[in-house]
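Action item from last week, closing it out:
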Amino acid sequence: MPPPKGTTGSELSRGRWAFAFGLVTSLFFTWGFAYGLLDVLNAHFQEVFGISKTQSTLLQLAYFGAYLVYAPVAGVFMKRFGYKKGIHMGLSLYSLGAIFFWPSAKFAKYGGFVGCTFVIGCGLATLEVAANSYIAVLGSPKYAAARLNFSQGFQGVASFAGPLIASRWFFRGANANRLDTVQWVYLAVAGLGVVLNVMFYFCDLPEITEEALAAEIHEVGIHDDEKSFWKQYRCIFGFVAQTAYVGAQVAVASLAVNFLSEQGIGIDHPKASQLFSFCQLTFTVGRFVGVLILNFVDPAFLLSCYGLACCLFSLLVALVPGRPGVGFLFTLFFFESICYPCIFTLGTKNLGVHTKRGSGLIVMGVGGGAWYPPAQASLADKTTTRHSYLVPFSGYLAMTCYAVGMVIDQAVKGSFRFRNIDELVQGKQTHAEEEKQGARRSPTSESIEKAKSSTEFIEAI
């Protein structure tokens, strides 16, 4: 059954817009919390199960591998049934995976944790396709990157809370070698998913359809979506950039606790977990700072600048030991902040009838987090955790190439500006000016009638 015709974000009243924006933003907290716990569980399971760093990254492989497998399915599902049903499916899978952490902890089965993490990842992949896409199209394209950064800022808040809880319960005293507390934390996570599912069931969420989005951009003379999906190169290369960036981001976070505790400056695992939560807080602050900047600066240009900074500081983390290295790690987290939302909004811009499919492809890029952490952990096992931070550099470099390429493409087309602009408003103005010029060049109806009369008069003679 196809979704209802729907509307566009710009057609919603201020009250309905605020309600829809707030409700969907609440979803970002759910996967931020799950993601924040994931990186801490890496180090915890190394202690409990006596496994290597490489083996512990099976959690990342399951979590982000789920995005690679399930995000395209979620995009197709929402194209057919709409955003709201996609959100219900995502929250259901999220809660189901979290509930099964209980028996996995009860019987101390590491494989069970990996399987449950995959199910949670499928749920979160669905939610990301829905929420990221919905927020991106919920209003003017000019502020799409700023809106998504603001919403994803709450993901950062949850990512900060996750490691903070872990540092208090997972690594303290007898809990350093037990799984009991993991059961209760994930039971609470499952409960949160159920509550949100019920809320979305009873709430009226406006459906924004691809047909309405296509009509909106066609009205101002933008017809990019008339080409086939596989010729939407901004989106295709956006998937590559997202794969590389998320892989780098996840790799940086997955061994952060190990990195911090191995610097020889008196940082144990509980302290490292606490510092990691402050790294996530730095990331979150960077998101909200990015919201302010993106109101005025072109997203492609800002992404290029932040990408170059990520390349620089990932190298400094890998090469400089001790306290300066810890400081560079915090700085790296700050400059990571805007990258994911900017890549998403740039990659899905003006997709029209391809919006949901394109969103699924970009979110599929999160699967890069499945293979970067094992690669980094393998290097860490062979050398040191510090030197393993050379691996994320390659991901940041690929992402920066995409951002710089977007800036060059805009410059070649003569549409690049350092300042952020509203393409729809600009398109309407350009369209109106073209119509005026056409009207000046074309004869008026009065002159046409006179010409007809003259012709008839000549013929009569």
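Closing note: Residues 443-461 have pLDDT under 50 and may be disordered.
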